[in-house]
Amino acid sequence: MKRSRVILEAVILAFLGALLPLFLTIYGAWSLSLRMEEDRLMDIASQATTRAERSFLDAAATLKTLGGRRFISCTDAHIGEMRRLVVNSRTVEEIGYIEDGMLKCTSWGPENRLIKELAPDFVVGKDIKAWVDVIPMVTGANPMSVVQVGPYNALVDPARLVEGLADQDASVVVTAPNGVISATLNTPDTDFTDKLGRETTKGTVDGNIYAVNSKGGWTAIAISSTNGLFGLFSNEHWFFVAFGTFATIVIIGLVIRMSRKRLSPLGELSIAVRKREFVVHYQPIIALSSGVCIGAEALVRWQRPDGSLVRPDLFIPLAEQSGLIRPITDQVIEAIGRDIGPLLKQHRSLHVAINFCADDFKTGRVLETVGQRLGNSGIANDQIWLEATERGLMDIDEARKTIAEARMRGYAVAIDDFGTGYSSLQYLQSLPLDALKIDKSFVDAINRQTATSAVIAHIIEMAKSLKLSIIAEGVETREQAEYLLDHGVEFCQGWFYAKALPAAEFIDYVETSLKRQDSGVVMLSRTKSTNSSEASLSSRP
After folding, report:
1. Domain range summary for the chain, segments of one domain joined by +
2. Region class of 518: left (phi > 0), else alpha (psi between -120 and 50), else beta
3. Cβ(454)–Cβ(488) under 8 Å?
4. What gap in Å lies between CA 540 and CA 517, rounded to an integer?
């Protein structure tokens, strides 16, 4: 009996000892999940108040800009300027001009309506008046917020304050400085939000997790239900049982598994380098004025033994971090000599562009590598473009030495993906470059109302002022090609003309392109003369 009691007590203590870590794990996980949800909601609320305050201030700044200019009221020029500011603003939906108590005109056009003067819901500073929940007089659309500075007012869509802020499991309420609800998301319980007050806080009440943030008089409340957290634990309770019971084994297993996963890609990449599993595809570079292929950019592809291709963005960063990018680059250059060396020897007007990493330019290895592997290939030096990204040329002094030596040997040097790094006019002036390649993101923005749509014209003018040849990347539509042609861009590459091609297909493409040139056929419907569009960079400055 005594022995049995001891055994029973031992079993109970062991059982309690086994359950205690489990309960602590569940409680800790619950507390952590709750805190993370509160922080997420606070971030949503903070974004909402920041966006609300900024939207009204941006609208006021737009009106101040308009008020600082002199116009004859409601002329075409006046209305056109209001319309332009609306188009370029992220927050303003409509601008109106008021004179002697009458709405004389808006960005939509002339008007002549009596305006009833109402006291503003709130005032920002000394001269910015604001109203919320106002039905637009002209369009009669959904209620808007109104910002007024002097004789001008602007309509701001309150939906802009909360759009895209939260997932479907979170609700948001935004109130203006006067306490009136300005915007909502996912139909929140306004009775519940009224109880929370306007102080910056977060917590859990009545089965709801909430966070309140106030800024510049604006208050935002983000809410989600605790049911989501309970549901998670209800569905995954077995996981916590296993975790508490076998914590040490699981942790060791996870560490081993994670370690294998982290090491596995590098191990596979090392094997791929050793087995020379890399092939080169060639992205045709086109002379815009004639549509003729004048060369190609060599793009590396990892071809596994089963024939599948691994995307470069999945292995190039690892290769650069590990130093394996050097032997990969060497294999690319050797492949160029094998693949298209005879083609380049036959057609001296063609060139090939090769990408190099930052360290290759910094150390000058690029010159040694190209010289050793293509020096006896019969490919002329002026048929080879050496390309580096802006980040690859950040060490100005070393890069300048390498570039100067490369150009003395007859190579052309281009800066790739321009606009995505840290380049400036002074930066470019300090490097003896031959060409500038405009990044695809700027080409995509052509003729679109985006923040970057006007940047490409400035890049083109900058390159022209430095007498650099210009190559536009990622051209996918006729509209883009015509825009670039009209703006004096000489070369381009992209799917509108051809995707990156295996060597045999690229050679066929070049031959077809040259035949088209001989027959006088062009790929664009109109041509624009340029002195260097059908040559590579042999006439570079």
Report:
1. 55-158, 280-506
2. alpha
3. no
4. 23
Q: Which of 96, 130, 90, 131 is nearest to 114 (CA)?
A: 96
Contact 55, 91 (CB under 8 A): yes
Give the angle subtended at the CA of 270 by the CAs of 265 and 276, to the nearest 5°: 120
Contact between residue 271 and residue 325 where contact means Cβ atoms under 8 Å apart: no
Helices and strands, counts by H and E, the chain: 16, 21
Record the pTM: 0.51
CB 24 within 8 A of CB 32: no
Tokens 């603003």 correspond to 89
Overall residue count recorded for the chain in this entry:
541
The structure tokens 């602590």 sit at 24
- N-terminal to C-terminal alpha carbon distance within the chain: 102
Locate all alpha helices (DSSP H) within 409-502, ordered by sequence: 425-429, 440-444, 455-465, 478-486
Segment of 81-85, 122-126, 225-229 carrying the highest mean pLDDT? 81-85
**What per-residue confidence (pLDDT) applies to 11?**
43
Segment 355-371, tens digit of pLDDT:
998 888 888 888 988 98
What are residue 303's DSSP bridge partners?
309
* Domain 280-506 top-level CATH class: alpha beta
- Identify the pLDDT of residue 119: 86
Residues 184/174, Cβ–Cβ less than 8 Å: yes
Distances (CA, A) of 130 to 92, 115, 118: 13, 15, 10
What letter does residue 324 receive in the DSSP assignment?
A: T
Instruction: Decide: 95 and 154 in contact? Cβ < 8 Å.
Output: yes
**Out of 183-187, 300-304, 351-355, least confident range:** 183-187
Structure tokens at 27: 């409680």
pLDDT band, residue 524 (cuts 50/70/90): low
Cα angle 125, 127, 133; round to 5: 85
Q: Under a CB-based contact definition with an 8 Å cutoff, are residues 340 and 507 in contact?
A: yes
Q: What is the pLDDT of residue 519?
A: 62
